[in-house]
Amino acid sequence: MDYKQEELLSKRRAIELWDSDYINEIEVGTFEGLSNIHRYLFQDVYSFAGTLRTVNLAKGNFRFAPVLYLEASIKEIEKMPQSTFDECVEKYVEMNVAHPFREGNGRSGRIWLDLMLRAAIGKCVDWSKIEKEDYLSAMERSPVNSLEIKYLIKGALTDDTSNREIYMKGIDNSYRYEEANSVSIFDIDKSNI
Ligand SMILES: Nc1ncnc2c1ncn2[C@@H]1O[C@H](COP(=O)(O)OP(=O)(O)O)[C@@H](O)[C@H]1O
Ligand SMILES: [Mg+2]
């Protein structure tokens, strides 16, 4: 399967995640919830959808949690509080450090964060308001210092949490961060391709 096909199939699932209302049934702030998002989005494209990685991973100079400690680390992250803006972002940052899946951590994790923010403060992120370069450099910095990512996300919060268009634009931007945005989610939605 090529990248474009992966993008098409998983974006179609992202639309369905919203339209079926399954998104509102996802458990908030747990690995179970995150893995259900991951499984749903990537069920057609990754055999490992929803399941823990079995290989060590690094990006840039950063090594994500070693496989050996992955389960223990996820258990600790699940215990982190999620009732304020700062707590939600800190939990997201730690889940990114764990990086539970072989691929798709960014795209599933951002939906997971939105659900935590919605529950905690009644807002979510309008990801179309955060530029790719800013996002990625803040996330690279985040294991050491989460101030930059908090600042970026705070400036992109919206209280329009049930706005389908904001969600859809956010998905496109989320794919753009991952160099995987070649077909617009709105075209997929319109033409049902
Ligand atoms: N150097 C880095 N240090 C820490 N986190 C990073 C780094 N580079 C990327 N990330 C995070 O990892 C995510 C990408 O993880 P990945 O599993 O590839 O997700 P996806 O498949 O959705 O692209 C980015 O969105 C970002 O949040
Ligand atoms: Mg990736």
If you average the pLDDT, what whole number results? 97
Number of helices: 9
CATH superfamily: Fido-like domain
What structural category do the secondary elements indicate?
mainly alpha
| CATH topology title | Fic-like fold
The count of β-strands is 4
Count of the separate structural domains: 1
The helical percent reads 55-70%
By CATH reckoning, the class would read: Mainly Alpha
How would you spell out the order of helices and strands?
HHEEHHHEHHEHH
The gross shape turns out to be globular
Rg is 16 Å
The neighbouring-strand order within the major sheet is: 1-2
Model regions low in confidence, pLDDT < 50 over at least 5 residues: none
In this entry the ligands are: adenosine-5'-diphosphate, magnesium ion
In CATH, the architecture is Orthogonal Bundle
Main sheet?
2 strands, antiparallel
Strand content: under 5%
